User: Which sequence fits this backbone?
């Protein structure tokens, strides 16, 4: 009998009791009231039992139990299949994540190694340019530039000095040339006097001989002096032209050396700046790689969270599988349902005791505590 | 040769990241995939520092620490826990087991290096 039929029975009994109490003797009245109270108490007891089991009284019958069992069996099979598929998919997500993150970490590691090597090279260039350490085997670039500059300065100074000496030599030769001209003039005068002496005709033969020797002597000297004069003129011209050329070349070279050294100094400065800039960029990349390494740890945490989600899915699967088992073990549906509810409560209690290690809600670096 | 750090974690990416961070600073790194593997490797070569995760298959971090503290070579060696666990109860358990410190994931490579330098130089 279901609850509706039972309620109809109570109404009928109540009406009967009402009629009896209205028309019958007191003894019948008491009897009718007692029957009515019995029916109401029975109804209350049935209702209480139904409330406790949460089920309608009507489902205790066999056909309903069979239908419920069939339904629960279907639900369990379908859920189990869905949960297993979900579990496999989540496993694949974890594998994909792990593979991708391993690859990313490896690439970031390689990138960082190369960036660090680049940074070290830049720093070595800067230190080599700026180094003044005499203990090192090599020569720094700045020292090379300085040495080259000094050598070129010394070379130019020497050339200028040589040119000055040559010009002094030219002046000395001009003086000698003037002296030679003076000697030539004196020789001319001697020759003239010799000719005038001849006119006096003293001891013609001797004088003639003497005059011939003297004349020959004078002629030889004059001839030599002319040669010296010519040689001096050629040498003077040569030395003068070379000295002038050296001086001009040296002065031009000095200007060029100065210009070149200025340019080298600028290149040196630019290279230093570039190397420092490379170093700064490498530092920025290193900071970025560090941040990436921190962020990439999401894989570890998400994998753990996926693992937890998988265990929860398996729990739901287990719960759904347990329901038909519990009902199956009892002939009464309500008893089976009661057992299933008890099992569910115990299971929920066990799950509540489980720890949940991943509580992070962002990817900021975690706390550090030294004991 | 740099100082030796044994890193124990079941996550390959975390092992990679720890190794990458420490190797860049000149440390030699040995890695292990769980507590049991870590214990065996710790016995094979004495590390100057052990860095371990907590939740791992076969043997967890707390058990590993207790096992290591039982070995003469590791009685006074620093052991740091690097884990997602951040509860006070777990930290207290770690301290009781003999951990030197507790680092909560995710770790910042620079901060990790600072801590490692602090404990082993």
Assistant:
């Amino acid at each position: 009998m279901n609850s509706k039929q039972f309620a109809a029975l109570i109404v009928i009994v109540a009406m009967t009791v009402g009629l009896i109490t209205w028309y019958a003797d007191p003894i019948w009245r008491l009897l009718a009231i007692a029957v009515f109270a019995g029916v109401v108490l029975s109804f209350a007891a049935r209702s209480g039992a139904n409330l406790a089991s949460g089920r309608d009284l009507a489902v205790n019958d066999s056909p309903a139990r069979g239908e419920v069992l069939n339904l629960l069996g279907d639900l369990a099979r379908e859920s189990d299949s869905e949960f297993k598929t979900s579990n496999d998919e989540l496993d694949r997500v974890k594998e994909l994540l792990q593979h991708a993150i391993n690859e990313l970490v490896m690439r970031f590691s390689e990138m960082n190694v190369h960036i660090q090597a680049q940074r070290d090279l830049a720093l070595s260039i800067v230190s080599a340019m700026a180094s003044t350490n005499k203990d090192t085997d090599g020569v720094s670039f700045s020292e090379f530039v300085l040495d080259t500059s000094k050598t070129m300065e010394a070379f130019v100074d020497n050339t200028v000095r040589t040119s000055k000496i040559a010009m002094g030599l030219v002046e000395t030769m001009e003086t000698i040339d003037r002296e030679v001209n003076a000697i030539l003039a004196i020789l001319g005068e001697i020759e003239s006097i010799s000719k005038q002496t001849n006119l006096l005709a003293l001891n013609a033969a001797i004088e003639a001989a003497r005059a011939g020797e003297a004349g020959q002597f004078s002629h030889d000297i004059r001839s030599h002096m002319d040669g010296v004069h010519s040689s001096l003129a050629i040498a003077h011209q040569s030395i003068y032209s070379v000295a002038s050329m050296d001086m001009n070349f040296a002065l031009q070279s000095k200007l060029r050396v100065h210009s070149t050294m200025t340019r080298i100094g600028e290149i040196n400065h630019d290279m230093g700046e570039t190397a420092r800039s490379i170093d700064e960029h490498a530092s920025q990349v290193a900071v970025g790689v560090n941040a990436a390494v921190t962020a990439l740890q999401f894989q570890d945490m998400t994998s753990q969270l996926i693992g937890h989600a998988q265990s929860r899915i398996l729990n739901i699967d287990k719960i759904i599988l347990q329901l038909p088992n519990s009902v199956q073990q009892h002939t009464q549906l309500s008893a089976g349902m009661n057992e299933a509810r008890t099992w569910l409560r115990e299971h929920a209690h066990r799950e509540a005791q489980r720890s949940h290690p991943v509580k992070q809600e962002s990817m900021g670096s975690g706390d550090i505590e030294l004991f | 040769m740099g100082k030796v750090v044994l890193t124990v974690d079941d996550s390959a990416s975390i092992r990679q990241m720890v190794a990458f961070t420490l190797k860049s600073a000149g440390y030699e790194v040995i890695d292990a995939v769980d507590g049991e593997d870590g214990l065996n490797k710790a016995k094979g070569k004495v590390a100057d520092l052990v860095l371990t995760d907590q939740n791992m298959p076969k043997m967890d971090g707390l058990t590993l620490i207790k096992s290591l503290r039982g070995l003469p070579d590791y009685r006074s060696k620093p052991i740091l826990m690097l884990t997602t666990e951040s509860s006070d109860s777990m930290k207290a358990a770690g301290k009781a087991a003999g951990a030197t410190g507790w680092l909560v994931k995710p770790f910042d490579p620079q901060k990790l290096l600072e801590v490692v330098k602090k404990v082993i130089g």
